[in-house]
Amino acid sequence: MRKLSIGVRLTLWYLAIFAIAQMVFGAGMWLILRGHLYDLVDDSLEGQVEDLKNFMEAQKKDASIAKLQEEVNETYVLEHSGDFLEVRAENDALIYRSTFLQTHAVSLTPLASIKEHTSRNLTIEGRHFRFRLQKVEANGHVFTASMGVPTDDVVETLNLFRSYLLMFAPLLFLLAASGGYWLSRRALSPVDALVRTARDIGGANLSSRLPKLETGDELQRLSDTLNEMLDRIESAFLRVTQFTGDASHELRTPVSLIRTEAELALRRSRGEAEYKEALRHILLEAERTTSLIEQLLALARADSGREALHMEPLNLSKTLGGVVEGWQQVATIRNVQFSASIASPQSLVMGDEAALRRVADILLDNAFKYTLSPGSVQLSFETQNENAVLKVQDSGAGIGVEDQDKIFERFYRADKARSRTQGGAGLGLAIAKWIVSQHRGTIAVESAVGCGSTFRVELPVVAAPAHTSQLA
Ligand code: ADP
Question: Which residue blocks in 349-472 are alpha helix, DSSP H?
Fold first, then answer.
């Protein structure tokens, strides 16, 4: 079954609450009016009973029942207040009973059951009455007076009030229903607009945004949040598209070089030396392609979150010692002076050894790639203010200020022509940056064109090693 819309549900809830409130209010008002009207009647009856008391007190103390009957009859037959009156003596002997009460054989509460006074509503032959039954003390005797008054007006007023309530309730209810529905539609109409726009956004028009609401409420927060989410999706989408485009472009170059080399070699028959030379070129390009594919795969795995790093407490001094050893030979071949200063371990770094070794390799590879002989490359490692600091400094080509931020981006090469001949695709530093960020560290460069570069990696240290000698 299809669920009702929020607008309809809100209206129904609103109506349910409104109907309950209306019923409680109507019933409350009716009860208050009723209480007030009967209070007025009771006040007037109390006054009449008081008059009767005064009358009884004015009689002789030792007057007989017969004498009292005569006196009360004489006065109250003519009195308006005697029309619905009954007076009885202590022994329940009847002193006075109005003609109306006699004709209609109205039975009123016997004396014993009344304490002080009580009020009672009676319907006699379709007419409404209210009686006040009260003990009246006069001249040392206790009488029971039942004083009545017609309350047709009161009942009629109450009935009229009830009819008005019942008549206007549906009207108010209808008014509230339409008002509630209009209000909820009005409040939720921006949601419909958001839904319509959101439905149209796809890969082809990812730069479209939801209408900006200025309502300052939850809906504005919702649209702002969705737009921020679209910003992130768009930039991720653009990164992926850019990455695919750049990757295909980078792969096309070595593949076409391999192809051209092979085609040239096969165009006519050549001597062994020439074939060997062609194969050597092909092998070199194939090796570059393999390393490029490995870098691409590493980044793709990093993007998809599948490149899991195995973090463990590491003594980086030891790891870097091994890395430096590996690069000594390269330095000798390239005739570049290479020195390393690795401080003995003070603290451990929580990290993945292979990944951090790769960071050092990338930085040293770049330093040797972009430093011509006779130049120098220095690696240093020390602990500074809770951070392990690795510096790779060279006296090479240097990097212009405008390029310094961009070199950490994928496929960015500061000096395109030279980088290509050196074999880089502009991915090394992007990989290094990703690894360092996974270790909650930072990587930065200081450089000036022609004056060399210094790459600085900072990683947070976790704790001083318990047994430094064992780890070293
Ligand atoms: P590549 O594989 O092209 O070296 P990287 O991401 O490692 O890619 O470096 C990006 C660019 O930064 C390089 O193409 C180069 O222009 C510049 N670069 C990196 N390291 C150095 C360095 N030590 N000296 C001068 N330029 C450098």
Answer: 353-369, 401-404, 416-422, 428-438, 468-471
